[in-house]
Design goal:
The protein is α/β, with parallel strands linked by helices and about 300 residues long. Helices cover about 35% and strands about 10% of the residues. It contains 12 helices and 10 strands. Strands 1, 2, 3, 9 and 10 form a 5-stranded parallel sheet that branches. A 3-stranded parallel sheet has the order 4-5-6, with helices on one face. The chain has a two-stranded antiparallel sheet with strand order 7-8. Strand 7 and strand 8 form a beta hairpin. Helix 4 packs parallel to helix 5.
């Protein structure tokens, strides 16, 4: 029995940042020290690209401008392999920590760098640590003004570092028909509460069967295309261990790094995957805000 109907595709996404740029490790790696750190992102990206090629899947890479400046060949390889290039901002600053002028400068800078290197239009954006929510929806207006057409930045869950539990689970346009399309990471509705089902740390920390069952339910019962994400450092058990981190951060960041790649292989086999701009092409092409009925329709990958 197939894991999901053949007409349903999920969006596979990668947040391209290195281990020392993770928000939880920010106290140990201020941005002015990044240049002196051992970068491992290029090596990990090569492994990811090989994995995707083997399974014949295409994905969206939300890439930091800081990374693209230093590894332009890696960015070109992403595009040459048929994947979508999207923006993760320039320096991995949370939007909650930026004033509108600084945020505009950050996204304009990142978009220009990515487009100049890759020679393709960058339409998508994901805020570092999903840091757009009810208190800073003005950021979506600036995304629209600067040429972005969709965002995947509002995570409808409760979390100690991010999340807007009251936000819709399906694609929507928070700022009206002409605003950017928000494509939230996948969640599972259980007992009146949204549970994360989009990957990241939960994919590493919980048994693989939990993620598989959640995505099956999202596809088959909710009739939604799930948005899944992970980071290059999550397949890298050889990354440097940072001394002095809290027990919670150590648990969240390092647990099961050696198992993630094998789990990804199973995930790519068990479900159908595509780029954000292809999975949600019908909604991106629509000038009207998607309704729950439209958002719940099965997505096609072209």
């Amino acid at each position: 029995m197939p894991s999901a109907p053949p007409t349903v595709a999920n969006a596979l996404t990668v947040d391209v940042e290195d281990y020392f740029q993770v928000s939880a490790l920010a106290p140990h790696f201020p941005s002015h020290c990044w240049e002196s750190q051992e970068c491992r992102v290029e090596y990990n990206l090569e492994r990811i690209l090989a994995l995707f090629d083997h399974h014949r899947v295409r994905a969206t890479f939300f890439t930091l401008g800081w990374i693209a400046e230093r590894y332009p060949q890696a960015v070109r390889r992403i595009v040459d392999a048929g994947h979508e290039l999207a923006s993760h901002g320039y320096g991995h600053q949370r939007v909650t920590e930026l004033e509108p002028q600084a945020f505009r400068a950050d996204i304009v800078r990142a978009k220009a760098i990515l487009e100049d290197i890759a020679g393709v239009e960058v339409r998508g954006y994901r805020a570092p640590s999903f840091s757009i929510g009810e208190g800073n929806l003005w950021a979506l207006d600036l995304l629209a003004e600067t040429g972005h057409t969709y965002s995947s930045s509002i995570y409808p869950v409760q979390h100690d570092h991010y999340g807007t539990p009251s936000a819709p689970r399906h694609p929507y346009r928070p700022r009206g028909p002409q605003g950017v399309l928000e494509l939230p990471p996948a969640t599972l509705r259980v007992a009146g509460r949204n549970l994360p089902a989009a990957g990241g740390g939960y994919f590493r920390l919980l048994p693989y069967a939990v993620s598989r069952q959640a995505l099956r339910r999202i596809n088959n019962k909710d009739c939604l295309s799930g948005v899944f994400y992970f980071h290059p450092w999550e397949i890298d058990p050889g990354q440097p261990r940072v001394p002095g981190v809290s027990a919670r951060t150590r648990f969240r960041h390092y647990l099961n790094l050696g198992r993630t790649e094998r789990r990804l292989q199973r995930l790519l086999q068990d479900f159908r995957w595509g780029r954000m701009d292809q999975v949600f092409a019908h909604l991106l092409a629509s000038p009207a805000p998607p309704t729950p009925t439209t958002a719940n329709s099965h997505a096609q990958v072209h």
